Amino acid sequence: MEFNTSWASPSNIALVKYWGKKPERVQLPSNSSISFTLSHCKTITHLKYKEGTDLSIKVTLDEKDEPSFIPKIEQFIKRISHVFPFVTSGEYEVNTTNSFPHSSGIASSASGLSALALCICDIATKKGLLNSKDFYQTASILSRLGSGSASRSVFGPLSVWGEHLAFDGSSDEFAIPYTNASAIFNNYCDTILLVHKGQKSVSSSVGHNLVDNHPFANARFRQASQNMSEIKRALESADIDKFIAIVESEALTLHSLMMSSNPYFILMKPNTLKIINAIWEKRKISKEKWCFTLDAGANVHFLYPSEDKEMAIQFIENELKQYCENGAFIHDCVGSGPEKIA
Ligand code: PMV
Q1: What spacing in Å lies between the alpha carbon of 207 and ligand 1's midpoint?
Q2: Can you count the helices (H) and strands (E) in the chain?
């Protein structure tokens, strides 16, 4: 039998960061994390799957063959095969496009692997192996096995992954939607300032592994847990000052863990720091509560409430754009999660 399915799944940006995996099982986080689900930065994946006895995989990105994705998909299939054994054989045709430029330096693993996981869950549903009640939780489990942060892309507007007492129902195995934030956060803006569009010098899987023997690991896990409790309070009471203090500290902590691992490395670029300083300077001289966060790379996510959009765009044009590679940035905002495409 042949199955066709299409899903659009967004990227997400962590507010409290996942950095480090528990050693005992595949892809379990050392600490819990929470993210904004994005709206415009997404991957659209069409999967044509034909049942068969052998495994074959064809992948296109933007309608061009992309054999370099095949090993990652093979690894993904192997990791999810205990959930759905049918995946290990058959003919896969994966046609995928990203709404953001491939070479923008924006990681496509969260959107890409969650889109593929959703397609697989759709096929499992059609085969009678998955019911609608478990659909998104299973999609989050599969996404996590592809890329940890992808587990959070399955839900919006915010999503929590990793067991934490303050978040009912939270789990290391899958993410859950977090819908209790004050309304202001449900349409928060994130302009991604593209400081460096090339490939990162160190992948996040290498970075996660370096946390295993990191001298600050345990203190970091305790801090992340405390920040999860505190950000929950800040999100629910719309305490933007507290929100900013946690989010910026988390971003810099992520990068200081990289700078203090063995071997150490730096993913920020001089212009990353120039943007951070410009945002701090702006906050000092005006009442705007704007802040930044960072992913595992040099680009800066500039975060601001949607009611400040016009002024923030002016600030980007006048002061931040000069630090972006070829003046490039992407306006995004918090979104509601993946969509099935008819
Ligand atoms: O999902 P991975 O393995 O690419 O790890 C992502 C880690 C960070 O993006 C740096 C933080 C996070 O929580 O998303």
Answers
A1: 10
A2: 9, 12
Residue 206, helix vs strand vs coil? helix
pLDDT given for residue 100 in this prediction: 87
Point out the ligand 1 atom lying closest to the alpha carbon of residue 107: 4
Q: Whose CA is nearest to atom 10 of ligand 1?
A: 296
Q: Ligand 1 centre from 126 Cα, in Å?
A: 31
Which of 307, 305, 301, 299 is closest to 325 using CA atoms? 299
> Ligand 1: residues whose CB is within 6 Å?
14, 17-19, 33, 109, 147-149, 204-205, 208, 254, 295-296
Residues 115, 198, 338: CA angle, nearest 5 degrees? 15
Q: How far is the CA of 296 from the centre of ligand 1 (A)?
A: 7
Instruction: Return the residue matching tokens 């799957």.
Output: 49
pLDDT tens profile 243-258: 999 999 999 999 999 9
1-342 maps to which CATH number?
3.30.230.10
Alpha carbon of 16 to ligand 1 centroid (Å) = 10
Domain ranges of the chain: 1-342
| Structure token pair of residue 161 | 């992954």
Residues 93, 48 contacting (CB under 8 angstroms): yes
Mean pLDDT computed over 12-22: 97
Q: What is the mean pLDDT of the chain?
A: 96
Closest CA to 156 of 337, 339, 338, 330: 337
Are 250 and 34 contacting, i.e. CB atoms less than 8 angstroms apart? no
Q: DSSP per residue over 31-97, as a string?
A: S-EEEEEEEEEEEEEEEEEE--SSEEEEEEETTEE-GGGHHHHHHHHHHHTTT-GGGGSEEEEEEEE
For 182-238, where are the alpha helices, taking DSSP H only?
204-210, 217-236
Measured CA distances, 71 to 7, 39, 91, 245 (Å): 21, 28, 15, 40
pLDDT exceeds 80 at position 200: no
For CA atoms 289, 318, 320, 15, give the dihedral sign. Answer: positive
